[in-house]
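Record type: ASSEMBLY
Status: queued
Input:
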Amino acid sequence: MVEILTSQVVSGLATGCVYALIALGFVLIFKATDVVNFAQGEFVMASGFISYTLLIRFELPYWLVFLATIALSGIMGVALERVVVRPIMTAPIFSIVIATIGASIVMRSSAGILYGYDVLPLPTIFSKDPIHWGVLNFTLMDAGVIGSSLVIMVVLYLFFKLTKTGTAMRATAQSQTAARLMGVSVGRIFSLTWAISAGIGGVAGVLIAPIIYLDPNLGFIGVKAFAGAILGGFGSIPGAIVGGMLLGILENLSGYFFNAGIKQVSTYILLILVLVVRPGGLFGAAPIRRV
Amino acid sequence: MPKGDSPGTNGAPGQSLLTVDGIETFYGGIQALKGISFKVPAGSIVALLGANGAGKSTTLKSISGLVPPLRGTVAFAGRRIDGLPSEKIVRMGISHVPEGRELFPELTVLENLKMGAYIRTDKRETQRGLERVQAHFPILAERRSQLAGTLSGGEQQMLAIGRAVMAQPKLMLLDEPSLGLAPMLVEEIFGIIGEIHASGTTILLVEQNANKALSVADYGYVLETGTISLAGDSQQLLQDDHVRRAYLGHR
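Status: finished
Output:
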């Protein structure tokens, strides 16, 4: 019994780590540019297909595919910001959000046209053989996904905390005027933010696609990650991480204790409950004003 | 700080470092500056005086590129800079300490200072600059790990000025450095402005505290509703009846 429970928690945490990565992408873009990018999930989907193509059609080695996917996803993020978002940056925030939703529909349809709507198998380097550690019960894949996600988070933390560019990105999020007066090119910081957010989405895609499925609707995972970010307190980076992880665990447990139908809605029930008690989310200071 | 020791500490005395010529600046449809012209000689301290809403802050923003002028020209060290974005202008050697200080509240004091040196690439030089700033403002060294948003008003002003010094500018634009500070702190801030000036930085100072400003400045310009109504060297302005009545509180 305990073993089954721990295996549910660990595999839930693995999915939750991926939610956390996607949620981080939402929050980074929101903090830097005040835009909520509803195409965030599509970076995950597109990265799944990119890595599928590189692995299966071009037969490149896995590590190279991993890096190339992150890079290509990052480039996609910059392109989306330049082509869709920046030209309308002075428009009301609502229009910008709708534009990102439009972009997500275009991306999803393009994937459908290119790859069809059948579920494709994306290989992974992590084995699904079970491992027993006392009461802990998990697969190498769970451990690999959790480990990779944590490494990405630590690297991001160090980048934002210790590097000059990372500090400039935090500074720009706090005051664009002051950042410009320091000589920071705010446009370049925006591009970099989108590149990083989409790049993390790329990592999420490579990690999650082998676990759930790879088809053009994979991007809807972004909705759950968004719920995770709100659960944690939208705009808070620790909130996005904890919210995403909690959501993954809860979702898995409710699927185990109840059924698959409850599993699908459990995240939203939890979200509503938390927001009733704490409108700002778990880590949020104040309720969100916009969107 | 003694005045008059200034023009000539760097650059040729009297040679204009900054030349503002007929600038007109708008916020939306509202014209804030209606053709302002003045010069800032290299090595000098120049004060812009005037009431609230006269256009003092707008003048500084027009120079640093935050609100580019629609008409007129701004020339710095012989090159036109109007129309350039702020991030280019600061790289040419103009640091703007804006109204409201515009610190990064959730960065530490040290991170704020390092952001000031964002345009500097020489790490060792930046480290020396950091030591110089912390010598000017010992309190900033003491509070270096504290978030800027938690500092007192006076400390925030010191940090804003210190951060601008980190860029090692040729010209510093200071917007109301005494605003909201207790008299003792005002003395301290003006003392530091004098030190920064003595180390070779030209200063364009916007102040409501006309007395204080003219006591350190070489030249002053009085702004009224977007135009310059009076100009002269500080001594003249201090003696001027209109200035005394309107800005120095004399009757």
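Annotation: Chain B has two domains: 9-93+169-251, 103-168.
Annotation: Chain B touches chain A at residues 64-66, 85-87, 90-91, 95-96, 98, 102-107, 111, 114-116, 118-119, 163, 167 (CB under 8 Å).
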